[in-house]
Amino acid sequence: MAESTHSPIADVQPGSHKGYMRLALSVATRSPPKPTNYRVGAVAVDPAKDEVLATGFTLELPGNTHAEQCCIEKLARKYSVTTEYLSDALPDVVALYTTMEPCSLRLSGNTPCVDRIIAISNRIKIVYVGVREPETFVSDNSSYRKLFEAGIQVVHVKGLEDDILQVATAGHEKRA
Ligand code: ZN
Question: What CATH number is attached to the domain comprising 119?
Fold first, then answer.
C-alpha cells in the first residue's frame, strides 16, 4: 500500500478526518499479519491543535495487544502517567481514529478496548471508525451502544472500507 512507504504524518491534511483515518490505516500496516486477529490502526488526535498525540497498532506492545489499547498505553507514556491518571493529563478534547470499531468483548478475558476508551471518556469525546468489525471472531459487537451511552460520539469515516479490510485480514486464510 502506498501510504506505508513514506512518512504517514505528512499525508494528513489539517482537519481532515479521512486524512487521519488514512494515517490509522498506514499505522495498521505495521501490524504483523496473523490468522487470529485483525490488523487495526489507531490514532489519538488533539483536534484543537490538529496534532497527533499517539498511534497504536495490533500487537505493537508486548502481549496480545489491540490497536486502541496500544494507543492509550502510549498516550500514558507520553504524558508520564499511568492509564489510571491519563484522563487528568490529556487535553480537554481528544479524538480517537480507529480503522475498525473498538472491541466490546475479548475472548482472552482482557479488558475490551471500549472499556479502556470509556475509562477516559471525559477526554475522548469522539471516536472515528473506518469499518464495523466483521463477525469472524465475535458476533454482535455492542461497542457503538456502549460508547454512545458513555457520552462518546461515534462517527463512521467512509470511503476506506476496502483498504481497511484488506489490511485487517492480511494474515487470514483466503476464501476460495
Ligand atoms: Zn480491542
Answer: 3.40.140.10
